[in-house]
Design a protein that fits this description.
By secondary structure, the chain is mainly α. It has helices spanning 18-23, 32-46, 49-56, 69-91, 103-111, 117-137, 139-146, 149-171, 195-212, 218-236, 272-300, 313-329, 341-346, 352-365, 377-392, 403-419, 422-438, 448-461, 463-470, and strands spanning 97-99, 174-176, 184-186, 335-337.
């Protein structure tokens, strides 16, 4: 059923309650029940992030420090709850927020090898401030339109492959081989030889079946079921599965990571050029993923016009930038709009009331974060692969008939997992796009802003020799 909210005059909210008028529930062809139901469904489909985010952000930083998993889980739930409620109240749109997959992976596997976690979160805050400025001035949409859609989609595909590869490695399904030839192999000696890795396979296949059957909350159900199966197997046939559960089910949230940011970057450990490129890559990940997701969700909810614009678009983009600031400030990584919001839209959600419901449930989930430690790492790794597979689906929207498109997309998507760096993949794609088009008679099709981005990535790739040339530590 279509809900043409872009023409609110077609529906009337005369006699409606103040709540109805504020969220435009009747005008958008929705009901209070549909909004509540949609908000609950959205929460169920994306609640897995409270389990997954602490696992992704568990990488030791440049000085060997790790983030406390319970504190990250609490910060993740709190940030998701607050930002989703704020977004719902400000924009009246049914989009939910949480720590962005891809952004958190970039921090964990590309950034904290050079900086500390507080410094990495400071970079996220800086990224958020820039996004807010760009959104408020209208430049964000202008830049979004300047980048070829194929590269935007390729970034999503590449991040999906990267996240999936991390899941394969963390589960023990893919391991480094002795002697390094080939560099990686399957499990131990070419086979799945451990019970934890078997639990990964079972959870992965179960999640795949549930997603194929379009079951709401498929990933969350797969994580819970995989954990239960693993606990039973471990009780009967102990193989060292680590559940890490030491407390009760309910506990006061550990909010010790709030405000744990450090803007005093150690330039003896990381160069200024590298810091700039880290922020630059964070911008790209936040920038294009969020705008693309919002546009798609607005279309799904029949809230977008022919150009893809939707009600209160500038406010939505500003709030999304604030999500990065808040996410960095709580050490949970940048909070951004989740495509899983589409599940709630599919249940009838059309207004920000659904977002308020989803946000409220996330705030409540903050008190149940001890449960997140029950999930073994191998079981959680299956969720990474499932999310990666879903992100890969965007490749169907890319036309590969032109090699000027094929090679940059290929490089973007493959360099990310092969070099364990989202920044490297984006850079390879942008630079190759510019070179192929510039030297094949299509130079005029390259937007001036794309040239600026390309030059920036050339400097990024050449930063080692440049630093040596100018004597930068």
């Amino acid at each position: 059923m279509s809900h043409p909210s872009t023409s609110p005059e077609l529906r009337t909210d005369e006699g409606a309650s103040a709540l109805d008028r504020f969220f435009e529930i009747t005008r958008r062809g929705s009901t209070l029940g549909a909004e509540v139901r949609g908000g609950i469904v959205t929460f169920v489909t994306m609640a897995y992030i409270v389990i997954l985010n602490p696992i992704i952000l568990s990488t030791p930083d440049a000085v060997g420090t790790t983030l406390d998993a319970h504190a990250v889980a609490a910060s993740t739930a709190l940030t998701a709850g607050v930002m989703t409620i704020v977004f719902g109240l400000v924009t009246r749109l049914p989009f939910a927020f949480a720590a962005g997959l891809g952004i958190n992976a970039f921090l964990a596997f590309s950034v904290v090898g050079s900086v500390t976690w507080p410094e990495a979160m400071a970079l996220v805050v800086i990224n958020g401030v820039i996004i807010v400025i760009l959104a408020a001035t209208g430049l964000r949409k202008m830049i979004f339109d300047a980048v070829p859609v194929q590269l935007k989609l390729a970034i999503t595909v590449g991040i999906g492959l990267f996240i999936a590869f991390i899941g394969f490695v963390d589960s023990g399904f893919v391991t480094a081989t002795e002697g390094g030839s080939p560099p990686v192999g399957l499990g131990i000696g070419g086979s799945v030889a451990t019970v934890p890795t078997l639990m990964f396979v079972i959870t992965l296949l179960l999640g795949g079946v549930l997603i194929a059957l379009r079951v709401r909350g498929a990933i969350l159900i797969a994580l819970v079921t995989g954990t239960v199966i693993a606990a039973i197997v471990n009780a009967i046939w102990p193989f060292g599965l680590d559940f890490g559960f030491t407390g009760g089910i309910v506990a006061l949230p550990d909010l010790s990571l709030i405000g744990a940011v450090d803007f005093g970057f150690d330039l003896q450990r990381v160069s200024g050029v590298a810091l700039i490129m880290f922020v630059f890559t964070l911008l790209f990940s936040n920038f294009f993923d969020a705008m693309g997701t919002m546009t798609g969700l607005a279309k799904e909810a029949d809230l977008a016009d022919a150009k893809g614009d939707f009600p209160r678009i500038k406010s939505a983009l500003v709030v999304e930038g604030v999500g990065a600031i808040v996410g960095g400030g709580t050490s949970s990584s940048s909070a951004t709009v989740f495509v899983e919001s589409g599940a709630g839209i599919g249940e009838g959600a059309r207004t920000g009331l659904a977002s308020v419901v989803t946000g409220g449930l996330f705030v409540l989930a903050m008190f149940f974060t001890p449960l997140t430690s029950l999930v073994p790492g191998e079981v959680a790794a299956a969720a990474l692969v499932l999310v990666g597979a879903m992100m890969l689906s965007q490749i169907k929207n890319i036309d590969f008939s032109d090699f000027r498109v094929l090679l940059p997309v290929f490089l973007t998507a493959t360099v990310m997992p092969m070099t364990y760096s989202i920044a490297n993949g984006i850079g390879a794609g942008f630079v190759s796009w510019i070179v192929l088009h510039a030297f094949s008679g299509k130079a005029k099709t390259i937007h001036p802003l794309l040239w600026v981005v390309g030059i920036g990535f050339v400097l990024f790739f050449a930063r080692g020799p440049l630093e040596a040339l100018f004597g930068v530590a």
